[in-house]
Amino acid sequence: MDGKLTQMNQRRLDKLYQRLAKHSRGLLGYPINQSYDYSDLYRFLEFSINNIGDPFQPTNYQVNTHDFEREVLEQFRRLTHGSEDDFWGYVTNGGTEGNMYGLFLARELLPQGIVYYSEDTHYSVAKTLRLLHVRSIMIRSQKNGEMDYADLYETIKLHRDAPPIVFANIGTTMKGAVDNIGTVQKIFSDLAVSDRYIHCDAALSGMILPFVDEPQAFTFAEGADSISISGHKMIGSPLPCGVALARRANVNRIARSVEYVGILDTTLTGSRSGFSPLVLWHAFKTLGLPGLRDMVHGALDTAEYAVQRMREHDIPAWRHKNSVTVVFPRPSDAVIHKWQIAPHRDVGHVIIMPNVTKKQIDALVADLTKDHYKRVS
Ligand SMILES: *Cc1c(COP(=O)(O)O)cnc(C)c1O
Question: What CATH class has 46-284?
Answer without folding.
Answer: alpha beta
